[in-house]
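To start, an entry.
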Amino acid sequence: MQLGLVGLGRMGGNMRGRLRTAGHEVIGYDRNPDVSDVASLAEMVERLTPPRAVWVMVPSMVTDAAIEELATFLSEGDLIIDGGNSRFSDDQPRAARLAEKGIGYMDVGVSGGVWGLENGYALMVGGDAEHVARLEPVFEALKPQGQFGFVHAGPVGAGHYAKMVHNGIEYGLMHAYAEGYELLSKSEIITNVPGVIKSWRDGSVVESWLLDLLDRALDEDPELANLSGYTEDTGEGRWTVEEAIRLAVPMNVIAASLFARFASRQDDSPAMKAVAALRQQFGGHAVRKRP
């Protein structure tokens, strides 16, 4: 199958490689000429045979602009697939705008990171059944072999919604491992923290790919001494918690893991200074002054 691919960064570039290995023709465009197959979006579209299918794999903050520009070169019957981490609520308005031009739209939540080239990607798809069927060869090539790794989650927006929840769960899982790691590292009786983590990788109910990656990180830096604790978030955790509030779903673990990321960015927490001041005021408890 022939596919246009916009955005050839860490994810998009590896997806192009996996699709080509499976025998598909991929014409990729990126603003970085060193990785792009063509000089412009217009050239990419020109090289595709109608009806065209173009997969957009760019950061969420520029997705709308990229799709709007791309749509100016497309024709009725063409199809755009957004595989980036867009907010699900953007999908249906975007699909409606494209439908006015006769252009189809699908949203795909993609998980797999930099390991997807080798292992395959988990794909969560939102869109019409006819569009899903049209892209089935592409999905089959990108997903891992076997029965898992793909779902048509529902109509437009469902793919990104599923990926949002997926990433919220990821926040909670990562933080549980992180808290366990910290407790092990503070313990007086554990002398081999990396070894304990490694022992959980097989036969344990907490074994997972994330645990494997933590083990890999500890192999490279046993005390994580070369890393800062400052942790960013890319939005999906916030959106998940917002949806939990809207639907009155208790989400204690995921919310706490999101707030922990916020706390990681504070060198000297104003809130904790207020707590220290209050303890001193009502109980005369000692406080630590700045040197």
Q: What stands out?
A: The chain has two domains: 2-155, 164-270. The mean pLDDT is 94. Residues 158-186 form the longest helix (29 residues). The longest strand covers residues 104-111.
